[in-house]
Design goal:
The chain folds into two domains: 92 residues, Rossmann fold; 107 residues, Helicase, Ruva Protein, domain 3. The protein is 39% helix and 6% strand. The protein is built from nine helices and three strands. It is flat. It has 210 residues and is mainly α. The N and C termini lie far apart (64 Å). α5 packs across α7, α6 packs parallel to α8 and α7 packs across α8.
């Protein structure tokens, strides 16, 4: 392989690499591959769900596990490359439960990142379980997967992140499912003066220094 990349330095010398202990993994969305498999096996083959059943479970694609090397060739990969991929595995789309776990469980989960940022402004941020579920449901509807969660959160938290530094002793901000659905705005409000179009924020005085 060229040590400095082949495009900018096409005339450079290459160096050998021992690939004996290297595992190469090639991944991708492969949009349309399921149609190629269906044409090969036939829509009415026993063991595959009917189109009406697939509509009931849109996130399950039962034909992908039946992929064969010839399907990958028809998809557009050259036979020499397909021959170097002895194992082919398929992955199911992320479910709502998976997306909720992505939002909350990792050490650097997105929800925890926002909670830490607002904690610097003495604001305790809380997402209700219904709000987390609605975020996951919207990501599934948009078919954006885990990557789309960041955009959804940015849209919800934009006003909160802007208003929090301007408010002293804001206390606690609760994001509910109505905010996620857009029925309420995400501007920081106050429990003393209810704002119908805002997350619930409770005021609290600063703790007296001991």
């Amino acid at each position: 392989v060229p040590p400095q990349g082949g495009r900018k330095h096409p005339q450079q010398e290459t160096i050998p690499i021992n690939t004996e202990n290297i595992l190469f993994i090639c991944g991708g969305a492969f949009v349309g591959l399921d149609d190629i498999i269906k044409r090969r096996v036939g829509k009415g083959v026993i063991g595959f769900e009917s189109e009406s059943e697939q509509r009931k479970k849109p996130k399950s694609n039962p034909v992908l596990p039946a992929v064969e090397p010839e399907d990958l060739v028809k998809f557009g990969l050259i036979p020499e490359f397909v021959g170097r991929l002895p194992m082919v595995a398929t992955l199911e789309a992320l479910t709502e439960d998976d997306l909720v776990r992505i939002l909350t469980e990792p050490k650097n989960a997105m929800i925890r990142q926002y909670q830490k940022l607002l904690a610097m402004e003495d604001v305790e941020l809380e997402f209700t379980p219904a709000a987390l579920r609605e975020l996951a449901r919207e990501a599934v509807r948009r078919q954006t997967g885990a990557r789309g969660l960041r955009a959804l959160l940015e849209n919800i938290m934009l006003d909160v992140m802007y208003e929090a530094p301007r408010r002293k002793h804001a206390g606690r901000c609760v994001i509910g499912d109505d905010v996620v659905r857009g029925h309420e705005s995400s501007a920081v409000g106050s429990a003393a003066v209810p704002a119908p179009a805002a997350p619930r924020v409770a005021e609290k005085p600063l703790e007296q220094a001991s």
